[in-house]
């Protein structure tokens, strides 16, 4: 795949870039290693000052970088600006909380005495250069939620971004440099996917994090496992959105539309499978389908646009094949389902009903504005359908019954359960999944400790 900005709204190639050669990659690896030796000794106050400055600059650049993201991958420009603002918020959160999250811990006194020590401390020390392999769908946020905690912990970052968002990737390196971080603290590697293995095998790279597809996660995890290096993986999702009879149907249907089509439906944590109790199925389906039909599909640079194009022609083709397979299997198309005759890689908001286990869309992630409806007879069946997926990233449940809340919170196989609301990431809450959605956690204290050497310091009497 070429490293290029191709506008998904019209297919026009705007900028192309040459991949970095072996000599430049080596220079940057040397710089990362050398920078880490000194940066790791900086205090939290200095790191926080730099991180807050980067957040200030990002807010100043919000409109410009928002347009760049929209032009590169097609998200509505309002959502692009909101993404930039969210990144600045996360940067400030880690600037303000990293020191307490990574403070030395003292085990219980009785346990220390039992070990024969006068004192024992647990310290969180940085590991070194961390390779981040990041996707195009949230081209700022996916990177910042790695970079902010990693840099605040004293690590340095090497970014291999998706090849279709090179301008955003270069912007991120420039952002941290303008903020005052030493040049080697955060570097963008303009390389193709084929270069990742050799970089990850380099002894100077101590760990890796990847957000992306399941095949990409398998590839990185395999190499890292061979090299015995720590990894965090956030992969696909096919999140359930369960609606029970006690739910506020109007609100549940309204939020369901946003939950499905956020980021043009290209989000791992977007609700994709809508599992509705039979008592309210028809009423919900009517409201939800009407909401999907009402969305404005158009130029993502226009403020009133709700849904823009998919990021690539191949992405649209993959989505179309899933929908066509479901139609051949007997699925009912309540709205959408036909590629529009217009320039760009658009796909209409689509609702499918009558899904069976034999259809590909039941077990594969639909990465675009396509929702599937399921009917459940009771709580047991709702849980069964929700868990009948290889993924387990997040989940959404709409109910006002406390017993049902406890049941879903206990039994849903997911990294998060959102009650009466849609899944969203926040710097204070751990983010990640189970099953084929990956392992490890980003954000919160759990995320900043993922790339730390948790060190026991034992003092003799």
From TrEMBL:
<protein>
    <submittedName>
        <fullName>NADP-dependent succinic semialdehyde dehydrogenase</fullName>
    </submittedName>
</protein>
<feature type="domain" description="Aldehyde dehydrogenase">
    <location>
        <begin position="3"/>
        <end position="457"/>
    </location>
</feature>
<dbReference type="InterPro" id="IPR016163">
    <property type="entry name" value="Ald_DH_C"/>
</dbReference>
<dbReference type="InterPro" id="IPR016162">
    <property type="entry name" value="Ald_DH_N"/>
</dbReference>
<dbReference type="InterPro" id="IPR016161">
    <property type="entry name" value="Ald_DH/histidinol_DH"/>
</dbReference>
<dbReference type="GO" id="GO:0004777">
    <property type="term" value="F:succinate-semialdehyde dehydrogenase (NAD+) activity"/>
</dbReference>
<dbReference type="Pfam" id="PF00171">
    <property type="entry name" value="Aldedh"/>
</dbReference>
<dbReference type="InterPro" id="IPR044148">
    <property type="entry name" value="ALDH_GabD1-like"/>
</dbReference>
<keyword id="KW-0560">Oxidoreductase</keyword>
<dbReference type="InterPro" id="IPR016160">
    <property type="entry name" value="Ald_DH_CS_CYS"/>
</dbReference>
<dbReference type="GO" id="GO:0004030">
    <property type="term" value="F:aldehyde dehydrogenase [NAD(P)+] activity"/>
</dbReference>
<dbReference type="InterPro" id="IPR047110">
    <property type="entry name" value="GABD/Sad-like"/>
</dbReference>
<comment type="similarity">
    <text>Belongs to the aldehyde dehydrogenase family.</text>
</comment>
<keyword id="KW-0521">NADP</keyword>
<dbReference type="InterPro" id="IPR015590">
    <property type="entry name" value="Aldehyde_DH_dom"/>
</dbReference>
